[in-house]
Amino acid sequence: MEANFAQRMQISTAWIDADKFPRKPTSFLRFSGRFKEHKRHQVFVSAQFRPERDENRHRWASFQVSCSYKNSQVSTLESESLQDLFDEEALILKNKSQEIEPYLKGRCIYLVGMMGSGKTTVGKILSRTIHYSFCDCDKLVEQDVGVPSVAEIFEIYGEDFFRDKETEALEKLSIEHRFVVSTGGGAVIRDENWMYMSKGISVWLDVPLEELAQRIAAVGTKSRPLLDNESGDAYTNAFRRLSTLFKKRHKAYENAKARVSLENIAAKLGYKDVSNITPAMIAIEALEQIGNIL
Ligand SMILES: Nc1ncnc2c1ncn2[C@@H]1O[C@H](COP(=O)(O)OP(=O)(O)OP(=O)(O)O)[C@@H](O)[C@H]1O
Ligand SMILES: O=C(O)C1=C[C@@H](O)[C@@H](O)[C@H](O)C1
After folding, report:
1. CA 113 to CA 276: how far, in whole Å?
2. Which ligand is nearest to the CA of 224?
């Protein structure tokens, strides 16, 4: 772009909320040859910045720049529109993972927590970020037993059989490296399982029971045999059963080397409600907490 043309550019700041620019968009603007021919005219450039979220809760910014000449319609000159993905959370994740990478030394990360606490969802984000493989312990047991779901394993063989298989799966994983493991919600109840997990870094995803019950009621209890088979209101039932389980287990979850508390994240971010905390934000806090204990 020619210098004198650039000097005449005016940005209509009324359209731009400067606070909404956490970092500069990486794209650049192109102007057509027609502009260059009219370089002595005063051209007004206005920009509209629209933060958006897609269905995966990724943040996007659509940045639309329009030019106008005197009072003529925008379209009589040129307008450029561009869309720039600036996923702030992805950038923080990348930076945090680079900070802790040298200290992880390939040790596995075991996510522990109640059913529905996000071990799978957050675990997948973490594994991608730190370039580890992801493993769902429940799935490992299903493959080993040759039955397609944990619910069916409970139905056919009973819970004790499942627990033995879960311990075997954790034993196998204990000789592995560079895995993020989503453990079963009840894996914490056996001391033997902690012995296997102690070779890695255990992280407790501590989510309030109300939030867990809401998530579980939203997706149903079919895949969660310890919460299934009850008539009545899904939220109330899930909340009651989760409360009973949590009373028995909370001490065991506290054995984890690191704790990621959604209530603490909400307090840090000034959120009233933990339901607005995205899985990526939780993964960021997990990396932070892991960093604190390395
Ligand atoms: N931060 C979040 N905000 C809203 N919903 C979430 C969040 N994290 C996970 N979920 C949803 O909650 C449900 C449970 O998540 P997920 O399967 O990751 O939990 P889990 O701990 O692996 O559960 P389980 O131990 O029962 O297999 C899913 O429907 C998921 O989409
Ligand atoms: O909390 C639990 O005890 C369970 C959680 C699931 O991940 C499965 O491991 C199984 O449904 C039992």
Report:
1. 19
2. 2
